[in-house]
UniProtKB/TrEMBL annotation:
Pfam families: SBP_bac_5. Transmembrane segments: none annotated. This is ABC transporter substrate-binding protein. The lineage of its organism: Bacteria, Bacillati, Actinomycetota, Actinomycetes, Kitasatosporales. InterPro entries: Peptide/Ni-bd, SBP_5, SBP_5_dom. GO terms for cellular component: ATP-binding cassette (ABC) transporter complex; periplasmic space. SUPFAM superfamilies: Periplasmic binding protein-like II (SSF53850). GO terms for biological process: peptide transport. Residues 82-420 form the Solute-binding protein family domain. GO terms for molecular function: peptide transmembrane transporter activity.
């Protein structure tokens, strides 16, 4: 049984204080007394920018969580499309949609939102190399026509509005796009907060944008610090150094005052990806042996202290229809004898629990007859090797509906032959066909059933072994109210976030 040995409380406070040194540089405004509207929100984020805050990368979700970049469409809690920078849309043919752009919107550089500007942003995303993940397997064109944005896809796509809700398809001012292909979001968004400064991978600053078309921000601005160390983020809430801390580690949650902790089930799955293209796990029997060796209950209880849900599939309790519609899986490969087979198990340290998960899995796999080597690095230093197939197994905490509010984009990206994030290097005809069918099915019960059929096709390959579904733990100072608790991790600081 795996047990955590806690640090003494006094020692933990000392360590956290040392980790915090130099991480936060509160502005003069944030320390001012007075009304909440005059104060700045101090935000501790887990991961620093990976791609210079390019909206075409996962950095787009930082721009969204800061309420600085916006999309044509937004999603409601059920995942249905709602107006954003577009006020309405019409499907004019199987492959063509027309979006009416909201009037009276200005970007932070003073320029106006027009159909031409919106089409320009979408076209840059559609022609980028590599493409944003949301456009995996999708050929899309956008043009301004008759004052509207006309979006055309090469194949029928019933989820175009949901797709355009992805932060990776944010609409920025033309000034953001350089001739060298780089995209600089500073001063180019349209949200209630204007990004005014980025200091590499350490800090960023945003100011309230008084020209915002919608509800004005209540706080004067946001001071962002990138703090990869989870203990330091939690300590920032305890010490008052931060007003919001995202992704508080499970091990730290119990050390915070209960009124500062929010726990939200989220569509995120902790999964073991097995390299099916090279190495020991080309053998389906050995993949089945790995699946049989893993005991998720030990991870939930020992590593996550009960603050997670044991996986019944790739899709978790944040999507209740998945559990309701899932059927018992049949046709699985029988486990082979590992016979001392050596494997390399890798993960990253940015999420505090994952190295501990790796240690528990190492024990479980060794007990089953594997010999296991471990590799743990920061994500920025391991992603390239993971995608290149340099590890036999990789532990990833993966959001399953991050982009469009629909799991198909995740299934295509992670498990199809041409998926851009295919850590398992899986190329299986039955999986590709099941994902293609789900992608072509209109929204509703039929699409959900097709998604579950695709999930089953993936699970039968044992290329991915879902272990548990995480809950997001967020820390908020008691002096603050109105921060978003968003399972999709798109929203955090909003116009309503303010000091009491």
């Amino acid at each position: 049984m795996h047990l955590r040995i806690p640090l003494p409380a006094a020692g933990l406070v000392t360590v956290s204080a040392l980790l915090l040194t130099g991480c936060f540089a509160p502005s003069e405004d944030s320390a001012k007394p007075g009304s909440g509207d005059d104060r700045r929100i101090r935000l501790a984020m887990m991961q620093p920018p990976r791609s210079g805050l390019s909206p075409l990368s996962d950095d787009a979700f930082k721009l969204s969580r800061w309420s600085t970049a916006e999309t044509l469409v937004t999603l409601d809690p059920l995942g249905d499309a709602r107006p954003g920078l577009a006020t309405r849309w019409t499907r004019t043919s199987d492959r063509t949609w027309e979006f009416t752009v909201r009037e009276g919107v200005t970007f932070h550089d003073g320029s106006e939102l027009t159909a031409e500007v919106a089409a320009h942003s979408l076209s840059r995303a559609a022609t980028a190399s590599p493409k944003p993940r949301i456009l995996d397997g999708v050929e899309l064109t956008a043009e301004a026509r008759g004052g509207k944005v006309v979006v055309t896809t090469d194949e029928t796509d019933p989820l175009v509005p949901q797709r355009l809700s992805s932060p990776q398809l944010s609409i920025l001012a033309k000034s953001a796009y350089g001739k060298d292909g780089r995209i600089d979001p500073v001063g180019a968004g349209s949200g209630p907060y204007a990004l005014v400064k980025v200091n590499g991978t350490t800090t960023a600053a945003l100011d309230r944008y008084d020209g915002y078309w919608g509800k004005k921000a209540r706080a004067a601005g946001i001071d962002v610090s990138f703090v990869p160390d989870g203990a330091a983020r939690a300590a920032a809430i305890r010490s008052g150094e931060a007003d919001i801390a995202e992704s508080v580690p499970v091990s730290q949650a119990s050390l915070l005052a209960p009124e500062t902790v929010t726990e939200v089930p989220m569509p995120r799955t902790n999964t073991l990806y097995l390299n099916t293209a090279s190495g020991p796990f080309e053998d389906a029997g050995l993949r089945a042996a790995a699946r049989a060796a893993i005991k998720p209950a030990e991870l939930v209880k020992g590593v996550y202290e009960g603050r997670a849900d044991r996986a019944g599939g790739l899709l978790g309790p944040a999507l209740p229809w998945a559990a309701e519609g899932r059927r018992e899986l049949t046709g699985r490969t029988k486990a082979a004898d590992p016979g001392g087979t050596t494997i390399t198990l890798a993960t990253f340290s940015d999420r505090a629990e994952l190295p501990e998960v790796a240690s528990v899995l190492q024990q479980q796999l060794q007990q089953a007859g594997f010999k296991v080597k471990q590799v743990v690095r920061e994500y920025a230093h391991i992603e390239e090797d993971a995608l290149a197939g340099k590890f036999d197994a990789f532990i990833l905490s993966r959001a399953t509906v991050l982009d469009s509010g629909d799991p198909v984009a995740y299934l295509r990206s992670d498990f199809t032959c041409d998926g851009s994030f295919n850590l398992a290097r899986l190329c299986d005809k039955s999986v590709d066909e099941a994902v293609r069918k789900a992608s072509a099915t209109p929204a509703g019960d039929a699409r959900r059933a097709a998604v579950l059929a695709a999930e089953a096709a993936v699970l039968r390959t044992d290329a991915a072994i879902p272990m548990l579904h995480e809950r997001v733990i967020q820390g908020d100072a008691t002096s603050l109210t109105g921060s978003a608790k968003d399972p999709r991790e798109r929203l955090l600081v909003t116009s309503d976030t303010r000091f009491k």
